[in-house]
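User: Fold this; tokens only.

Assistant: Input:
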Amino acid sequence: MSWCAFRGPRKRSVPLPEGLDPALVASASDNLTDAWRAVGPALRAAPGARVLIMGGTPSIGLYVAMFAAAVGAGAIDYVDRSAQRRTQASALGATPHETTPAGEEYEIIVDASADRGALAEGLRHAAPGARCHSVGIFFGDPTPLPLDVMYMHGVTLTTGRPDVLADIADVLDLVADGTVDPAPIFSDEFAWEDAPAALAELPRKPLVLRSGP
């Protein structure tokens, strides 16, 4: 039996579904589950909703695109300056853009940009009653928000660390039954003994594997 350990208010381990390759869910204790809770529950409550993803971080925005496509978004627009990530997003079922599509509105907005300006830009495209979740951490300087749009459209904005325990079971099940496949999002694969030298090169989204106990 394999286990997925994670940090949270209560420290514990969760058994993996039988036959699930642990390497596929190496990010389940953090990024993978954070991405799911940013879009999955909202889409289950509103099937067919339009989703806008403000990308920019190495993996979370791509995970969001993956989950949005799997759960049945009506449209998925992915915005990122990185051509590489736009290509990956397209392969995951999203429509990639270098800038936010003009005049479009979305019921679900996910900010995975780590950029204050991108968060505000995403909120300006909120449809009435939209929900926006930001996975970013904005320390230091103030973060301006378009409160006029948010007020007039009744937008709900959430942020904060993920409660992994509440959502990890959904993530593990979706990977185990083949609904989603996180493997293509990993940029590199290293053996444990090679990790110190490899990580010094700052790979984008590495997977480090160790055999044995």
